[in-house]
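quick one before i forget lol
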Amino acid sequence: MPAQPPVPTPQQVAWQEMEFIAFTHFGVNTFTNREWGEGKENPKIFNPTAFDARQWARACKDAGIRMIILTCKHHDGFCLWPSRYTEHSVKNSPWKDGRGDVVKEVSDACREAGLKFGVYLSPWDRHEPTYGDSPKYNEHFVNQLTELLTNYGEITEVWFDGACGEGPNGKKQQYDWPAFHATVRKLQPKAVIFSDAGPDVRWIGNENGYAGETCWSMMDRSRVAIGKADGKYLNRGDPAGPDWVPGECDVSIRPGWFYHADQDAKVKPLADLVNIYFASVGRNGLLLLNLPPDQRGLIHENDAARLRELRKFLDETFRTNLAQGKPAKAAAEAPGHAAAMAVDGDGATWWAAPAGTTSATIELDLGGPARFNVVMVEEMISLGQRIEEFAVERWDDGKWLPVCQGTTIGHKRLLRFPEVTAGKVRLVITKSRGTPTVREFGLFLAPAVAK
């Protein structure tokens, strides 16, 4: 364990509180039926016939999504805003006679709907002639990044991937990550920066939306090379890591990341999305679900319908916390942090064990038999991530019986199991790296989901 275990910044805490956000892959690939463009596409192919950013925002807001991250420029180099630094952009498309700006319309729609807005800018650019001439291209990239960070209001997340191919000169580009990060810090100091190694948010190591069953928010950034990341390390994090870099779980609602008409019937079933939610938000991660707009410039009806199904399931599951407000007691507690604070529904309060304690128990009286099949546990992550192992037990016929058990908790841990009935339950923290805290404890009854 580091001498001073890391804790999150206020921006990282606010980011994790969002829990569920959206990616929107949109661009020339939408019209070529490809996933990766070559950079030789004619801008005139970009012509959405019914583009409506407000429809995107409505579909996301109705699903409980808190932010949209737009692919402002993918690897093909086509810019969804009228960049001064390239002709390969919407300004040379027939859409709105070349006077359109997708970035502006999406950012405006997000603010109107009360959503946050984020930008994806691919460092790899298969169109830009200076790519591969590292100093020149890095200047070009910073110029485009500056446009995005100064012309579209507050940006909550800046998303970089590590893709890096050869340029027209046959040379591989050497990205100036320090300069890229410094540009974000200067122009959008409240934004979090995503890449394999952070600095603020890390990739979870796969594109399935699954965090590790053990998932620490800490890691050692010096161990991770952007574009050559160790997926297993990123998936689990590192309890001894000196850096606080929580995991973001990216996955697409369809097989592809861009829209393809032949995938309209291949939207992930509700059961799959529920599994993903519990394996991302429920394992100390944040879910980044890709919703690829179609050639009309709309979130497809099938995708929107599945989002509504997911929202209905989540609302029904978490509407009633059977533990909230119930009498709670702990064998010991820190002054001012009573066990009742773990079930008061107030995210600003928490139970804490006495200083120096590394195991503890909170017992709840549910006031009569209650049925449940989901447990939720949250730590007060502003103080760090500490709990390594825990279990939940129920009182039955004069003895405590196991319900479920887990390892790490972090921002939120959700565990599912066959339905049980109990009048008393207890949370048993068996191992902790420091004094354990519990921000909130919950018991819920989730409806069945057809497979």
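fyi DSSP finds nine helices and 18 strands in the chain.
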